[in-house]
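Record type: ASSEMBLY
Status: queued
Input:
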Amino acid sequence: MENNVLSIHQIDKHYKNIQALRQVSFDVLKGSVFGILGPNGSGKTTLLGIVMDVLKASSGTFQWFGETPSAAQRKRIGTLLETPNFYHYLSAVDNLKISAAIKGVDESHIHTVLEKVNLGERKHSKFNTFSLGMKQRLAIAACLLGNPEVMVFDEPTNGLDPVGIAEVRTVIKQLAAEGKTIIMASHLLDEVEKVCTHVAILQRGKLLSSGSVQQILTDEDMVELSCNNMAKLKSIAPTINGCTRVEQNDNNLLLYFASNTAALDHINRTCFEGNIVLTHLVLKKRSLESKFFELTNTQN
Amino acid sequence: MFKALHIEWLKIRHYRTFWVLSILFIVAVLGINYISFEVKNSISHGRGDVLLGSPFSFPKVWQTITYLSSYVLFIPGLFIITLITNEYSYKTHRQNIIDGWSRATFIKTKLALVFIVASGVTCIVFLNVLLFGLSAGSGISFENIKYLFYFFIQALSYGSVALIIGLLIKRSGLSIAIFFLYSLILENVLKAILNKYGGSSGNYLPLKTTDALIPMPFIGDIFPYQPNITTALIMSGIYLILYYLLANWKFKTADL
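Status: finished
Output:
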């Protein structure tokens, strides 16, 4: 238990007609980069809102650091929730002074975090003069205040240009390398795959699966086959070495193999020896994207 | 609490609207009292008057200035509404909680701010009492200083109603519209209806109760209408407690 930074137990959240979360439970281990993956509207922000006490769960509980939630715990967590929330009429520095004062962090740290996100030159500009990317970077700077051991990022690369996205990912990886625990919500599979060690997949408020990234988001090889005697091919296909499962789409048979193990020559030979002459044989790397769609579609 | 109030100060010290409204309030209080002072002087040529009495001489001036100044209490109300709805529109009410304030700290700080604003405007009105009372050429007297306390209660009441409206409505334009509509028109309509059918219960609507603490000074001497101050004070106290409880309950239980 003491290894869990965050434990969520059977959290339910419903608004008037909408069930936003259904019985969501998972644990976030200390030192992990935990991705909460799901399409827009799947309940990611609602879940993070609940654990940061800006939303009230309809039922269920959660614990930070193995203790009942309290305001003092949140001072040890750097959080970016949904959008950068700052006083529009104040400068970057004045805004961070407020965050620092609430967290009980010394004001001298403000300069450091602004430099870290490359906002040093604009620190005296008002927030409402900032571009979307700069606002997002300021929000990340606010998260870094006080060098917290846990960070929560909700769509951290939202609104950033490609350079900005790369920078933010680098920052997150650096933080992870320093041993910090990071909880990150994202609808970008690619982002989760590149940055996270663990993942929970949410869809329409339901937890579809959670675990290590390797476990959940394994890549697969997919081979497309067709011939003149599909029935016979179907009977032989499952016997091919390494084939994990078989599916049929319009005119082709799809064979799945673990990543980088599909050998086309071996498949071809096996079929030929079974008196089947293939008319079509193509190796396709199955993208994580399609895996994600598969995970989220099966529940529809 | 001092630390939380210091954070509140960080939020408003560079907020131009705060300074503009503060100056407007001072100008408005001076203005409304000065106009009345001049009108009174032009009628009675600086002397006491059978009809009007000497409303700007001590000790009557305590009642006169606090009564007149209460007409511009909507300005601090406006400021309170702006402060609370700003938090909602910038979503900084969420950020303050996320950064490590408890919900209780947030709402208690806002309530404390209402108290401080009410104290501030009471100080300004106190200075006006001295200014006009001494200008009227009478010796200083603290005989009626209770009206300053009543004014403070009134300021607290207007500020709390503004806070509650801001908390419930969340959007600045609509909150301001409802605040004005209620304080200027709706409550008067309600009062008229209630007084017609329900005895004098209309006098104890939220803002009317505190208004009743300071009766109109000019006609007071010839039409000795004496509202029951004790009842009004008790009702004001009850309302203030209700505002406090409602604000706390709302902010602690709602989705932010």
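Annotation: Chain B has a mean pLDDT of 90.
Annotation: The first helix of chain B runs from residue 2 to 12.
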